[in-house]
Amino acid sequence: MATDHYTADDADAAANVFAGELKRWRTLRGLSRTTLARRMGYDRSYVSKVESGAKPPSRDFAFHAEKALHSGGALYNAYREHAATTDRTRPVDGQFARVSPQPAVQYADMMAGGAPPAGR
């Protein structure tokens, strides 16, 4: 019987997916980390740490990266996977147990409102 238990490695893998997507879209758009950081309103060192996987992305970071790189929802979706995996790996009674995920947010809704979705 399958269980809904996840390890902290799952969260690391999801963060690395976001980092890979960030680097891929930045490279595709021909931007340096400095230019991307400026467009996002973040410090270059923070962008570098997220892109290298040393720091996990925040929801706001993912939103600003999505807008700056016009990735068609790819970056925000990678963030959502990271956030869902992180939530599932919260320790409960000494074990990592699944918690219910947040409702899905549509990319078009996110971009139309001009602000990150409420919640996460």
From TrEMBL:
InterPro entries: Cro/C1-type_HTH, Lambda_DNA-bd_dom_sf. PROSITE patterns: HTH_CROC1. Coiled coil: none annotated. Pfam families: HTH_31 (PF13560). GO terms for molecular function: DNA binding. Residues 22-75 form the HTH cro/C1-type domain. This is HTH cro/C1-type domain-containing protein. It comes from Kutzneria albida DSM 43870. The lineage of its organism: Bacteria, Bacillati, Actinomycetota, Actinomycetes, Pseudonocardiales.
